[in-house]
Amino acid sequence: MNTKNKTAIIVQARLGSTRLPGKVLRQIGGKTVLAHIIARLEAVSGVDCVVIATTDKESDTPVAEAAAALGAVVFRGDEADVLSRYQGAARAVDADIIMRVTSDCPLIDPEICEAVLKLRAETNADYAASNMPRLFPHGLDCETFTRSALERAAILATEPYDREHVTPWIRRAPDLRHANVTGPGWPANQHRWTLDYPEDLTFFSNLFDKLPRDRIPPWQEVLSLISQEPALVRANAMHRAANIMSDDLAAPVAVFHFEANAQIGSGHAMRCNTLQSQLEALGWRCHWAVDQKTEAFLQTSIPPAAVIRLTSAEPKAAASQITAAIGKCDVLFIDHYGTTKEFASVARKFARRIVYFDDLANREMDADIILNPTPGFTAEQYAPLNVRPARYLLGLDYALLRQQFSAKRAARLRVLAGPQSNERPQRVLVAFGGVDPLNGTGLTLDVLAKRTGFAVDVVLGSSAPHLDSIKQQIAASSGRFRLLTDVADMAGLMASSDIVIGAPGSSTWERGCLGLASLLVGIAENQRPNATIVEEIGAGLIAGFLTTETREQVAAALACGLDRLIDDPALRRKMSLAAAELWDGRGAQRVVAALQPDIPLDQERSLRLRPVEMRDEALLLNWQTAPETRRFAFSTNVPTQVEHHAWLTAKLASDRDWLLVGEVKGTPTGYVRLDWLGEDKGRPQYLISIATAPDCYRQGIASAMLRGTRALAPGAHFYAKVMAENIASLALFQRAGYSLANGYFHSLPAQREES
């Protein structure tokens, strides 16, 4: 065998678990846990061998024998020093690339493993993973790294934690290149698919009894099954992990008050969680304040450790329940149309700031910030409705999209920029949201049944009221139609589609982010503004609204629009490019930045941070080419305009990096970069770079930007690299509390610094 770039998956396994002894040889679904894992990993393409790395203790001989009988390579090493065990196993099989999987993950997914291996190769990273942060179900974690990174860790990692858990040193090493496959996020990441407790064994036993045994079902199929049978996860729900920052009492606190039910679906929960995920990744503690109807509707999607259960809608009683649960909070988010202004006014006793999500501008509010991404609304409409001056975040720039969409945007745009295809569409996606109360899905399938030549994916929630009739339509399609319930990776599904047919609700912006031509069928009146903007910019066609038109009228218009898109690839491409031009997927960053208070400079002036936009391109280039800036830059090469444009485009396309401009009274005064480096025990790491505009030196701008970035990412570990002769910057970081170690200045969150 040619051993160049040899890839090995190494699985650590032993019998000595204190909570569930002998778990790797327990039986589930007619096979041992170890057998399930080996079979799944042998299905990963491009892998040369699977190695079971067990201990050299006599008690683990049954693991070694079972692994050998299953055809895996066996390596035995130190029980406590698992890092050295991995080093020995990698050397034994002469592996250049190593993937690490633990033996408590019987649902480990070959496709995710392949995606992580592919990403590492494409980015030439030293390390890549699927859990930075964890946005897949817990139990699908895998990580891959180079042999050289492993050898360095084996030499330099000295802490017992690093030796036991193998990769922490690699994950946080700032000079190594890290990459991550972005998972779907909520609600998929609420699931626990790892074997550690007896209750987990009960969960897996019940689950595997329902899974097919003649093939390996992908993780989305497993998730769909669980969504249809939520009783399965009750067995081990008590062991679902809390957010990594949940016990950090120094972290800022956010409370999300929203509703979700069979009438309105889970859209409010989804956009709240989109923002929550961004905040948690930066180090916030987040809680949900929801009533019993919302909790019953969301079922297992509710994060149990974060729920504040409201048993009363009376403002004072509800506010008291929140106060009793968490004390005070930094921000209260209200995304509940039944919530009165009185609740917000009472909530000011425990909430420092209040943010309203809104779509209609038709109710009284008591807000500090009002967020409405729907086009067409103005501050003048909201001012009379709000009892105090507020900041308005209005328009498409503030559309909240889950990270999975921004993560896939760059690859999708490369496809759109490639050679134009004259082919007819291969896949059509039908997606009217999880509930679809007016059954736009059924109407669309009737239209699609009369047209052939392409496959059809149909997405619905397992609680959709018309699900049974949809299943009957799909059964009659002779295999052309495929039903997917409770889809987690909507971004991946959309990215593989040529045309999307659906409602112009919040998913409008998801389709736009990925540059998809749309056919729109309205199922709610508040969707009209979205539909109008899509049609006006040429990103889609409106087939009508089931709220005001007959099903026959909508079906006829839908058939006409569909024929146009099928027969005209140039029109599809034009629509796709128009959609991608309008929505960039950075709404969550803009909202998070807007949440940050201004940073005082003196008695009269303060600094505000905002994300860099493409309109700042010339300004940033001027600053970067200024002699004062280049003097202490690590690269003295002045970027050309073309190089700068390519760099800025890539930077703004990143779903992990932050690039911010500091403004004083609306005038840009400097910028700060946060380049993502990886994670350390769930804490994000950033390399921070800062530059003040040449005409703004010695005004405290840089210090203010450092304070602002710490407020933005209170849970992050910041690294800074400063040239020894740059006296001003050395003093700047020292004044800001950064400490020097191993060639970098470091800033850690105060509370976690001692842990």
Précis, in short:
This protein has 755 residues and is α/β, with parallel strands linked by helices. Helices cover 36% and strands 21% of the residues.
Show the helix and strand layout.
Blueprint: E1 7-12, E2 27-28, E3 31-32, H1 33-42, E4 49-55, H2 61-69, E5 73-77, H3 82-92, E6 97-102, H4 110-123, E7 127-129, E8 143-146, H5 147-156, H6 160-165, H7 168-172, E9 178-180, H8 198-208, H9 219-228, E10 253-258, H10 267-282, E11 285-291, H11 292-298, E12 307-310, H12 315-326, E13 329-335, H13 341-347, E14 351-357, E15 369-372, H14 379-382, E16 391-394, H15 403-417, E17 427-431, H16 440-448, E18 455-460, H17 467-475, E19 481-485, H18 490-495, E20 499-502, H19 507-513, E21 517-522, H20 528-536, E22 540-545, H21 551-567, H22 569-582, H23 587-595, E23 599-600, E24 606-611, H24 617-625, H25 627-630, H26 641-653, E25 658-664, E26 667-680, E27 683-692, H27 701-712, E28 717-720, H28 727-735, E29 739-741, E30 744-747
Parallel strand pairs: 1-4, 1-6, 4-5, 7-9, 10-11, 10-13, 11-12, 13-14, 14-15, 15-16, 17-18, 17-20, 18-19, 20-21, 21-22, 27-28
Antiparallel strand pairs: 2-3, 6-8, 7-8, 23-24, 24-25, 25-26, 26-27, 28-30, 29-30
Helix pairs in contact: 3-5, 10-23, 12-13, 16-17, 16-21
